[in-house]
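User: I'm new to structure prediction. If I give you an amino acid sequence, what do you actually give back? Let's try with this one:
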Amino acid sequence: MSSYDTTQPSEEGQPKQPSTSGEAHVQIESITKTFDGGEVVACENINLDIEQGEFVVLLGPSGCGKTTTLRCVAGLELPDSGSIVINGEDVTNKKPKDRDLAFVFQSIALFPHMSVRRNMRFGLDMKTDLPAEEKEQRVEEAADILGISELLDRKPSALSGGQQQRVSLGRAMVIQPEAFLLDEPFSALDANLRDQMRVEVQRLQSQLDIAMIFVTHDQQEAMMLADKLVVMNDGEIEQVGTPDEIYNDPRTQFIADFIGSPPTNFFNGKLTERDGEAVISTDIFELPLTKDQSAAVDLDSVNHVSAAVRPEALSFADDGLFKATVMVIEPHGDRAAIYLESRDGDEITVLMDDVDDLEAGDTVCVEVPPESVKLFGADGERLV
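Assistant: Good question. You get back a string of structure tokens that encode the predicted 3D arrangement of the chain. For your 384 residues, that looks like this:
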């Protein structure tokens, strides 16, 4: 039986049994953390359930609270209020070493004078009194899973950046944690290595069936990795969902703006009623909404809105809503981003396949499908 089976004996010699209470494996309950005597609110009222075997990604801009939240889970920060529960046990006031969690950070921080084997064993030597044979077995199994068996007797200086990060993952794996916590672990690697390590971590998480909490500001990385995506802003959780849900059904204007590359187009305008349907009036076009969209909007309480349209939803047509000038054509693999400027100076981005007949300076007519429009109110909350 593999030493990564969740019912293997713990360091005390008793089986580690998964929770049978129906509760989430890791529960973050109403966490708030402030600094500077309460002047700086790093994260506020964070509630999140993480299931066994779930890959959860905390995504947001710098300063949004994602790393502080992770550090509270790790025990590196003590929250002002709220609690952290792991496998049914409240660990809020426990030290990091007593939480049975594994940490992988941006700084790989291997001991340069130790071999890969000794680096991977370090946590076991410090935290357990397991027999040497079992420690060695765990190291060799982890090395085999990570594809670094042939590197065990090398020093870190003889390894590439990607190999060093695998060693860091292996060092975390051998302690058989309740969950992995990863704080932007690949940001110091070059682009090719980042892509490779993302695949490695996904494969590893699936193979071990362990909870992972991964912090990043890279939306592409988040969309690739997450089973559950948690978007944070200004110390709060804006939305939780699958990557598809977050992308296609953003709850707030911030999310619609933050998620997506090229970014979403926004048109500020007013809502009016015409023949029983709602109409968006902007500086460059008027667009009747669909019947379902019109029914969902309270025209008596909503006036000024922001209409969001993804670049891939726009197209060119002879009878389009408005004319614009092609400024730049930027290749994006098998598609291209076309950056436009309307006659009023508005900047619009269109993402499409066929651009062979286009060049800078051309005038195009832009079509806006009403069903692709998402409306946000003055408070940034989604209306339609």
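You can read the tokens as a compact description of the fold. Here is one thing that stands out. The domain at 261-376 is CATH 2.40.50.140 (OB fold (Dihydrolipoamide Acetyltransferase, E2P)).
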